Amino acid sequence: MNRQELVEKIAAAEELPKAKAARVLQTVLDAVVETVKADEKLTLVGFGTFKLQARPARTGRNPSTGAPIKIAATNVPKFIPGAAFKAAVNAPKKKAPARKAKARK
Known about the structure:
It comes from Mesosutterella multiformis. The protein is of the alpha+beta class and 105 residues long.
């Protein structure tokens, strides 16, 4: 699913115009980014937690030349799924009801 498909799904579920659904989605995403950028956790109970994680400086190798390189420290966003999200993803799929064979004449 891409962003446009998500907007269409929100619009259909909430009976909103697509433009308004797109603005709602953008507002939610902006709030997540701003909260994590401010080094605060954003927890959506049952869904998960977004937070900022520090990645320390490290050394590595250039894949082309094999020369050693230094990789600077950086901050990366991290998502930790909640229990309800994990349970929903791991729930067994429901089987479709078996079709009855048509009687032959």
